[in-house]
Amino acid sequence: MKEAIIDTDMLSYYLKGDLDVARKVRDYLGQYPNLKISIITQYEIMGGLEYKKATKQIQEFESFLKECNVVNLTNNSIYHSAKAFGRLRRKGVTIGTSDLLIAGQALEQDWGLITNNEKHFKDIEGLDIDNWRKG
Asked: Quick one: which of 1, 28, 42, 79 is 20 to 30 A from 20 by CA?
């Protein structure tokens, strides 16, 4: 299993108790010291919880984050994101900015990307995608 960053949708499945995803997380943590999530994912999940005023879940998520490696954006990850944006745009393909930024982080470190949104990422050159909801 390749070292990877966990996309927002997959982390949401895990936090909601999806058994297939939880099993894959256990397997991953048997090889690597922690889950890697993007600062973008932190923002997306926190924003959703704040919108719902889910105070208890916010506290649980903040506690969960202490066990994770929250990956910041860097100049190099932005470069990878911008290159992917340019290549996709020339092909007439558009995906969301958040997805491009997370993909850039994975590309920068040569990590895989764990996501259930395969169609959002499938056209990004050099990105290894895995879906922990499948088998």
From this structure: 42
Q: How many residues does the chain have?
A: 135
Look at residue 134 in the predicted model and tell me its pLDDT. Answer: 83
Do 5 and 111 contact (CB within 8 A), yes or no? yes
Tokens 């994975």 belong to residue? 106
| pLDDT value at residue 100 | 97
70 in Cβ contact with 42 (< 8 Å): yes
Axis crossing angle, helix 8-15 with helix 39-51, rounded to the nearest 10: 50
**Model pTM score:** 0.94
> Cβ distance 4 to 105 under 8 Å?
no
pLDDT (0 to 100) of residue 1 = 81
Under CATH, which architecture does the 4-73+111-125 domain have?
3-Layer(aba) Sandwich (3.40)
